[in-house]
Amino acid sequence: MTGTVIPSAARSAESRDLHLRHGERVDVTARTADCPNCGATIEFRWSSAVQTVCPYCKAVLVRRDLDLEKVGMVSDLPPTSSPIQLGTEGRWQEDGFVVVGRIVYRYDRGGWNEWYLRTMRGGSAWLSDAQGDLAISAPATSGIALPAANALQVGQSYAIDDTLFRVASLTRARYAGIEGELPFESWNRDEALFADLDTDGNGDTLRFATIDYSDGSPVAYVGTYVELDQLAARNLRRIEGW
Amino acid sequence: MSAPTVTSLSCPQCGAAIELRTLDQALSVVCSSCGSILDARDPNLHVLQEFQARQKFTPQIPLGTRGTLKGEKWEVVGYQVRGITVDGTTYYWDEYLLFNPYKGFRYLTQYDGHWNDVQVLKAAPAEQMTGRQPYVTLHDEKFKHFQTATAETYFVLGEFPWQVRVGDTAVTRDFVAPPRMLSEEQTPEETTWSLGTYMPAAQIWTAFGLPGKPPHARGVYANQPDAYMPLAGSMAKRYLLFVAVIAALILIRLVTASRETVFATNSAFFKPGAPADSLAFVTPTFTVSGRTANLEVTTEAQVDNGWAYFEYALVNEATGTTYEFGREVSYYYGRDSDGAWSEGSRRDRAVLPSVPPGQYFLRVAPEAQVPTSFLEYRIIVRRDVPTLTPYLICLALLALPPIFVALRAWGMESARWKESDYAPSGDDDDDE
Amino acid sequence: MKHPIYTTFGALLIALLVAAEVRGWTAMRPTEVKNIPRSIRDNPGAYRPHYRTFFGSGHYMRGK
């Protein structure tokens, strides 16, 4: 009865401002553009998307203001039994959100989805989804000194956002696919290291933290395990037979 | 985006069709035809382990069966038979993997007819105390250590969200707080904690619409809920209430009993050897007053290594109704190798029931066999004396039901812990 | 009310107990005989009890 410990999410440095290659800040409000590969009209759910995948021809497209540049192709993602899909909407912590993008990860003992959420208030979060276990996390707000990748050890404790977390596991995962709109250029990434940290549960909310080393320097995220019912989710994937 | 279809793949060993129910969440899948364990992530389904089980088992809930537990729909997607070996005997149990795409995974375990609903915990229990009997705490509930053993996987069917192999072992530790149980599983890769809740077999049969009746559960399972312990506790409380009531009644009786001495002889003597008829006498008439109540007749005789027998008749002077009874007083004593000894008593107390008020006298015929030639004696008659016996009988009778229930509870707990590492005989423990 | 059977059983037993105490019931069962003549006062030695079994040692010394 071996289960998997919830693995962490790979994200880029969300806390950094979104910059285009030439140093210009993003200030785009247009919602549609044409795919340079197949010509299909792509609608953006998130006005500031840096990267997106054409849902029709699977071309990975990077945005240069209103123009899209094809930088690669992704293969079809394998069919998933996850109830979450692009366009799923819900509510979390009195804020509405919509799922705009997805990263699929694989590691030696399985895989998981990281869904990228944009909220009504203009913020963002990640919804990780593994074997029916859902968790929402966002970048840690208080700045702390995080260890370098080679200094990490299971059992060490770090204070993140005023809570003491303990390193529970280290995972090396690789990108197995992407979908939708993402806040970074990521299509050619290989392996990334994540540290999963837990804390003593108090009451029913179980919090966790993640340190993401996919960009080289560590970024910390803090999250909470949730049930699908708690998110008041709409526009879920229709799963055949369920 | 289109809704995904169930992927159709074929087994590389035997070509049979493989159906994945959990789609991207399965890591290994067992070919139902040849039993090979295949890598579910690989589009070619390469073989992880060829069929190796020594024995085939049939799940009681067939794979693919859907049922409703706690209002949620679940489908059986995997089946494992695992076991522990103690003193050369292997004890097998079943594990059923349940899946719901909106809820994730859940397990049902079955052993000897006992079922458990198990969920994997995301974090280890908060506290752990080591010592003679270690325990862990979760949400302020204390779980006592029940057993540590090494579990081996003997048979697999269906699909799993991890890489399963026949022959896999894990060190398991179980902690119980009936009806719940916390189990820890340790493999070289990771440690997982799960919370199990005991479920009556009938509930499983109803949930999955299984035919017939579930097999009878044998013995008491580790986290089987206590049927009798709570009952024993509340019955004991009810008994204490009865004790309080009876104690109050005793107090009232002690206070209200009149204990009026209605007749007493001064010290009198008789010659034991004289003819019996000549020894008989009648007392003066005395008044027995108040409501119908008991009458105590105390006989005291200074017998020394002998006995005296008093034949009494209490006669109601007005009605002629007579109560006849005989009382014996005997007392023996001496010294032997163990020291001084004595037997009997020089005083006898007889309590006559329900004597109506009126004028009475006693007709007494004494006889005795004593070493002395004269026997000194006294007779005292008292009205309405308190006696403790009825209260004690009442307390004893009222104690029977709670004692009976407590014995059942103790029997059940005994049977439960007999299967643990803490069994009284203690010779079949596993490594600890 | 919890344990209705046990409580009822206990209540009845206690009621029985109270009745016994009020009525003066005891465990003893003396032989009750009616209409003993007053002549017993004059000749107590001639009186013969009406029970056959004897308590105590079982010795019974008859006259003569």
Mean pLDDT score of chain A? 78
Average pLDDT metric of chain C: 78
Which range best describes the helical content of chain A: under 10%, 10-25%, 25-40%, 40-55%, 55-70% or over 70%?
Answer: under 10%
Would you count the extended β strands of chain C for me? 1
Alpha carbon gap, first and last residue of chain A = 25 Å
Please write the string of helix (H) and strand (E) elements of chain A. Answer: EEEEEEEEEEEEEEE
Termini separation of chain C: 69 Å
Structural class of chain A: mainly beta
Number of strands of chain A: 15
User: Biggest sheet of chain A, strands in spatial order?
Assistant: 7-8-9-10-15-14-13-12
Strand content of chain C: under 5%
Shape of chain C: rod-shaped
Largest interface: B-C, 61 and 49 residues
Indicate the percent of residues in helices of chain C: 25-40%
What report would you give on this structure?
The complex is a heterotrimer of chains A (242), B (432) and C (64). With 242 residues, chain A is an all-beta fold. Chain A has no helices and 15 strands. Chain A has an eight-stranded antiparallel β-barrel with strand order 7-8-9-10-15-14-13-12. Chain A has a three-stranded antiparallel beta sheet with strand order 3-4-5, with no helix packed on it. In chain A, a hairpin with a 4-residue loop joins strand 8 (110-119) and strand 9 (124-130). Mean pLDDT of chain A is 78; it is low at 1-29. Helix content of chain B is 16%, strand content 46%. Chain B has helices at 201-208, 229-256, 276-279, 389-418, and strands at residues 8-10, 17-19, 28-30, 37-39, 47-49, 66-69, 72-86, 89-100, 104-111, 114-120, 127-129, 135-138, 141-160, 169-177, 180-186, 191-199, 260-264, 268-270, 281-282, 286-288, 293-301, 306-316, 322-336, 339-345, 347-355, 358-369, 375-383. In chain B, a hairpin with a 7-residue loop joins strand 4 and strand 5. In chain B, helix 2 (229-256) packs antiparallel against helix 4 (389-418). Chain C has one helix spanning 4-23, and one strand spanning 31-33. Chain C starts with a helix and ends in a 31-residue tail after the last strand. Chains in contact: A-B, B-C.
